[in-house]
Amino acid sequence: MKFSADVSSSRRKSRKAHFSATSDVRRKIMSAPLSKELREKYNVRSIPVRKDDEVMVVRGTYKGREGKITQVYRKKWVIHIDRVAREKVNGATAPIGISASKVVVTKLKLDKSRLAILERKGKKEAMKQ
Length: 129
Hints:
This protein has 129 residues and is α+β, with helices and mostly antiparallel strands.
């Protein structure tokens, strides 16, 4: 059932838009939910992930692992977390890509622009209630 005349409901077009998305669009798609404490504090449900945020994996093999984001790999749609890596045959460690939607942000790296985003989103959420 189609709700908006402005947006296509075609699977083909949706997939094309998703996989050929530009970096700025990918940033927004690669958002992660905030922890319950942060959600209460900022009145915001989710935020685009960023390097140096602290996250906890909530799904998959690495469930329960906590760590700091070392890289947001937008091209591959994954994030790399410092304590989530595997040992290679030659002894080197390789980071494991985790989907941003499968983590919960436990601590934010805040700067002026990030605070502005939280402020703006928090007001929007308050108006809905």
